[in-house]
């Protein structure tokens, strides 16, 4: 099962290890753009997620029925708004993107769908990174963005080089994670309900060198070499 985590949880929750767990709502959260931009149902869900995170070391299951039951919610929760604004992040476990389906297929069955060549390329790249002893922060950001795209679209794009490469290229050119998330959210909103256009909600299209810059301009975000991207996801 896929899980979420709350961004900056360790910074804000000083009482998370108490039993029963406590949560603390900080002024920074309640006055943030994240909080004021979501609806009341999402705000209630955010507090419910905090309560669960306090008892599970910030590991919230992507299981609406479970969250509804343990948090005594009257409606089935929808995590998409909290993911879109950056309050919730998809938890990447062992660098493998999990399938969004409800099946109980394990990681081996998901990986079996990959081509042999793609697996070898990914393995060699990971081996070089481990041998260097230095974490590849840009790659980690690219994986975060692909997981974010999966969360908003219901897809299961894998962490293979063909996907990672096009995302890291934009990041190395100066694009920020916030800008990239803004582009993804805007295009999901624009194309998500159109079956034909939804096919273009993939890394190679969204992060194409020319198109990515155009998409930034369309949503009113400054070019990737600008100093102020105009987008903030803080809590």
UniProtKB/TrEMBL annotation:
Q: Which InterPro entries match?
A: Phg_2220_C (IPR011741)
Which parts of the sequence belong to the Phage conserved hypothetical protein C-terminal domain?
146-216
Pfam families membership: Phg_2220_C
Protein known as: Putative phage protein (TIGR02220 family)
């Amino acid at each position: 099962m896929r899980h979420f985590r709350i961004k900056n949880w360790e910074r804000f929750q000083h009482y998370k290890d108490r039993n029963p767990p406590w949560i603390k709502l900080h002024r920074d959260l309640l006055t943030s753009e994240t909080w004021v931009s979501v609806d009341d149902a999402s705000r209630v869900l955010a507090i419910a997620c905090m309560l669960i995170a306090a008892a599970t070391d910030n590991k919230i299951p992507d299981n609406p029925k479970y969250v509804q039951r343990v948090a005594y919610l009257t409606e089935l929760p929808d995590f998409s708004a909290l993911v879109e604004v950056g309050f919730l992040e998809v938890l990447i476990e062992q660098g493998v993107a999990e399938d969004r389906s409800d099946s109980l297929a394990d990681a081996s069955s998901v990986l079996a769908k990959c081509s042999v060549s793609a697996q070898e390329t990914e393995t060699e790249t990971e081996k070089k990174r481990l041998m260097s002893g230095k974490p590849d922060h840009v790659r980690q950001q690219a994986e975060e963005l692909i997981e974010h795209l999966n969360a908003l679209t219901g897809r299961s794009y894998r962490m293979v080089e063909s996907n990672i490469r096009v995302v890291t290229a934009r990041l190395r050119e100066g694009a920020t994670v916030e800008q990239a998330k803004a582009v993804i959210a805007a295009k999901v909103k624009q194309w998500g309900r159109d079956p034909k256009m939804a096919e273009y909600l993939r890394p190679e299209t969204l992060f194409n060198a020319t198109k990515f810059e155009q998409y930034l301009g369309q949503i009113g975000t400054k070019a990737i070499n600008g100093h102020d991207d105009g987008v903030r996801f803080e809590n």
